[in-house]
Write a structure and sequence with these properties.
- This protein is α/β, with parallel strands linked by helices.
- About 20% of the residues lie in helices and about 25% in strands.
- The C terminus is likely disordered.
Length: about 210
């Protein structure tokens, strides 16, 4: 059954305003084959680690987050396309619920389509906003919201969002959460294209 499909999850933030338009349920996948120099999420690069969750468990958590008024989900990594088999199922189920899907990938959209991978194609089919391109630490983007480096591109794959939506003109934000002895920070600071995250200490990380 699809509900029993397993996904390797590095982190989940059930409700965030720092990972895309509106309130969103953010999922970071564990594992990335690209290994961009200066990656701000180095702990998410190995395919070992994280937490194995079933598709059913992830969708149940998303359904709970709908009570907080989320308008969609954001898939990050790691590398979502490296987990496209499960990620596409999440995206499809989310779209059926009337929510939107935003994906950050280190691949260019042209590369993904040329691979002729049905899982990649299915994920793109159910994506509203795609941010593509590898993170380049020498090209920090300090003007576009939610974008890590200036080489990365934003693709509006459906009419749910537009480039001239007011949200893209707002300043970047950080979100800090303290739970017991654990501190987690996600998002971008307003003047730097990096974010912060680590348990229980804080270190650099980025959204995409």
């Amino acid at each position: 059954m699809q509900a029993e499909v397993r996904l390797q999850i590095a982190q989940i933030v059930p409700c965030t305003e720092a990972e895309g338009p509106g309130r969103r349920f953010a999922i970071w996948f564990q594992g990335c084959p690209l290994r961009c120099p200066g990656c701000c999420n180095p702990e998410f690069i190995p395919f070992e680690g994280g937490e194995s969750m079933s598709l059913g468990e992830v969708l149940t958590a998303i359904d709970r987050a709908r009570d907080d008024g989320i308008e969609g989900i954001t898939l990050l990594g790691g590398e979502p396309l490296a987990h496209a088999s499960g990620a596409s199922l999440v995206a499809s189920a989310v779209r059926e619920r009337g929510l939107t899907v935003m994906v950050f990938t280190g691949y260019m959209i042209e590369e993904a389509r040329l691979m002729r991978n049905t899982d990649f194609d299915r994920l793109l089919e159910h994506t509203d906003i795609l941010v593509d391109g590898p993170y380049v630490r020498e090209l920090p983007d300090t003007s576009r919201r939610w974008i890590g480096s200036t080489n990365q591109r934003i693709h509006f794959l459906t009419n749910r969002y537009r480039a001239d939506d007011p949200c893209w003109q707002e300043r970047n934000t950080l979100e800090i959460r303290v739970r017991g002895n654990e501190v987690s920070v996600n998002g971008f600071p307003a003047r730097q294209a990096v974010g912060l995250w680590k348990k229980p200490k804080v270190t650099e990380r980025r959204s995409g």
